[in-house]
Write a structure and sequence with these properties.
By secondary structure, the protein is mostly helical. 69% of the residues lie in helices and 0% in strands. The model has no long low-confidence stretch (mean pLDDT 88).
């Protein structure tokens, strides 16, 4: 593990994450609505470091999360040619998590960007693994789509797309990584949902953040 590389990645991740709260709040709108041009309460714009506006809570957790995720990726991957792409993908993933937490949506353009930043570099550097990766992605896409179409809709189509993208990317590392990436999200959201149910505070939970945490653990621990 290269300490300078980890430090550089952490600085990059934290600095990039500082811009995300405003962007996430702008994009966190109901399906079909246009992104917010400014905060309806204070009129703040969005291309600026900091909390999404002066009406918002402190954003330090977002910055620390970005720094931690980037540092973990650098420590796990080292000076790999895919590391720069994965660091950019981490920023896109954090943005997805922020939006999903606010409005239970995973915007298609950001999911597509995340897919391009992860799958394309892996396919370029490991062409012999494209077949198993596509197989993993197709299997997860089918399974999650069936669940999403069941009565009650435990999953949204954004969750299905993101899960398929993550499974495809993890497929380049092998089936153990895919397994970890699929099991961990349910281990995260399952207990949370049970606690909310027992305390009579049941509500829909965003699944995107759990999927992304599962993929991060799969990349860094397998």
């Amino acid at each position: 593990m290269s300490l300078p590389l980890v430090i550089f990645a952490a600085v990059f991740g934290g600095a990039a994450a500082a811009f995300l709260p405003r962007i996430a709040h702008r994009l966190a709108v109901p399906f079909g609505d246009s992104p917010r041009p400014a905060c309806p309460l204070c009129g703040a714009g969005w291309v600026k470091v900091g909390a999404f506006c002066r009406c918002s809570r402190p954003y330090v957790v977002t910055v620390l999360t970005g720094a931690l995720v980037a540092a973990l990726l650098a420590a796990a991957l080292g000076p790999s040619p895919v590391l720069p792409f994965f660091l950019l993908a981490a920023v896109a993933g954090l943005l997805l998590a922020l939006v999903d937490r606010r409005c239970l949506r995973l915007p298609d353009p950001i999911v597509a960007t995340f897919a391009a930043l992860t799958i394309v570099p892996l396919a370029t550097t490991q062409p012999h693994r494209i077949g198993p990766a596509l197989g993993a992605g197709g299997l997860v896409l089918t399974a999650y789509l069936i669940v999403a179409l069941l009565p009650g809709r435990g999953l949204g189509l954004g969750d299905v797309k993101l899960a398929a993208v993550l499974a495809t990317a993890l497929g380049f590392a092998g089936w153990p990584a895919v397994f970890v990436g699929l099991v961990v999200p349910h281990l995260i959201n399952g207990p949370i949902g049970l606690v909310l149910l027992l305390t009579r505070r049941a509500r829909p939970l965003p699944f995107g953040p759990a999927l992304l945490v599962g993929a991060l653990l799969a990349v860094t621990a397998t």
